[in-house]
Prior knowledge:
Helix 1 (12-19) crosses helix 2. The chain is mainly beta. Strand 23 and strand 24 (395-398) form a beta hairpin. The protein folds into three domains: 22-42 and 201-357, Immunoglobulin-like; 60-192, Immunoglobulin-like, CATH 2.60.40.420; 377-500, Immunoglobulin-like, CATH 2.60.40. It starts with 11 loop residues before the first helix and ends with a strand. It has helices spanning 12-19, 27-45, 177-182, 194-197, 487-491; strands at residues 60-61, 67-69, 76-88, 91-97, 106-110, 114-121, 129-132, 153-159, 165-171, 186-192, 207-215, 239-242, 245-246, 248-253, 256-263, 270-275, 280-285, 288-296, 299-301, 306-312, 321-326, 348-357, 382-391, 395-398, 410-412, 417-424, 430-434, 440-444, 459-462, 467-473, 478-484, 495-500. The strands form six sheets. A seven-stranded mixed sheet has the order 13-12-11-15-20-17-18, with no helix packed on it. The protein is built from five helices and 32 strands. 48% of the residues are buried. It binds CU-O-CU linkage (C2O) and copper (II) ion (2 copies).
Amino acid sequence: MNRRNFLYSFSFSAAAAILSGCEKKSDKNAELESKSNEVQKAVQESPKEILNDRLEPFTQELKIPKEINFKHIAKAKFNAQKSLSALYKEKETDVLTFQGDLPNATIRIKKGDDFELDFTNSLEKPTIIHWHGLLVPETMDGHPKDAIATNMVKEYKYRVNQSAGTFWYHTHPHGRTGEEIYYGLAGLYIIEDENEKALNLPSGEFELPLIIQDRRFDKEGNLVYKETLQDNVGVLGDVVMVNSTPHPYKSVKNRKYRLRILNGSSARIYKLAFEGIEEFTLIGTDGGLLEEPVTVKDILIAVAERIDIIVDFKDKKVGDSVMLKTLGFKEGSNFGTNSDYPGFGAKMDIMKFQITELSNDTAVLPAKLTTIRRIKESDATKSRTITMEVIKGGIWTLNKKPYDMHRVDERVKLGSTEIWVLKNSVHMAHPFHMHGVQFQVLDRTGKIDFPTDKGWKDTVLVMPAETVRIIVKFTIPGMFVHHCHILEHEDHSMMANFLVE
Ligand code: C2O
Ligand code: CU
Ligand code: CU
């Protein structure tokens, strides 16, 4: 099967190439064809770094999720269902959604307000929604053991009681989280508060949510999940979607934008940078704002992590464009992956910002964003070690034990503070995630500096052969999970339960 050729044949340029023998090309076709030659050239120059030889990249406009804002409604409804969505231009593709189409809505809510949502499961198998990064009671968290059967309804109700930040939601059934997120069951969850409002950060059309997900499409234009055994290492795709739009473009003004970025991929770690803009500013991490903005040239974002950044297009003129890309992250894995797709080290273009309008934005970013109380090491009453290991049969585990959703792996005292020592003994980086808490990173043994370590985290990347120490205060009673957030690892047992009592 010639996977590589199909979607490409939808494009004008391919049509132009076919027709060119017998017909004079129109200017438009000629232009598109030369664009396509550029893509071909890029492919030839870096055979392992195929951008996209099946579609004309940057021809689809970035979709912006609609919002469910709890300022205007008291209760929302989600229904996990099979749907059709036009991801690849007009081609309708089988996906899973919460409200009928992709991208799923962004939830927006203010600190102190009540969140309420009725969730119906219209899938064939049990599932449950988890609010990633939120500090909610055990019964509201969406532990895999709480999955509801087909046609059942789960009523979520809780008060949002944490600082402003970018969070997300996704389903969390035991063993099928990877597949469900892959086909669409995820979205953003934004918390606002007064402190953040006073900062006057770019908002409205100047605040863009970007959910980055690499995907595979077959020759009919349908999404394809796992294909080979190698995919247990992690499913990597060759088409990068942002907000369910493959390689989109977005028209912008030459001013500051706030980008709330979520890596919603299965396994790929991105090293994000902007071509044509040297530096940008990190203002927030998983759990909310940093104390002060940090200037960076590029930034790593592992699966499930969020970064809140300010990028300034002020030096650009109308007609210029700026590419958001990943520089590749080969340090993330020595494991072989499905060779039909670009590996962990692949450089890829993600999306293009096109400057179409001038603006006279003069706003200055505040030097101080918030206060983060550092948890003192001396507050910790216990230290425990979690190891990341592969056991016989190629099973990914924590502490050598495959996941059992009813077994208590760690018992923690309610109200206590602990240091968790995360030890990665395999040659692959793992994003370690905990439910029910936001933690702080104390230190790491590796050489790479993570500016995101400065903020509140719920997911932290532990590099190959690295040990990372985090400090956590446990304030919510109940059973929660901690796991690797590479979706194929989590589904394949790299998960455990901790009970806070
Ligand atoms: Cu994104 Cu168990 O979570
Ligand atoms: Cu989570
Ligand atoms: Cu892992």
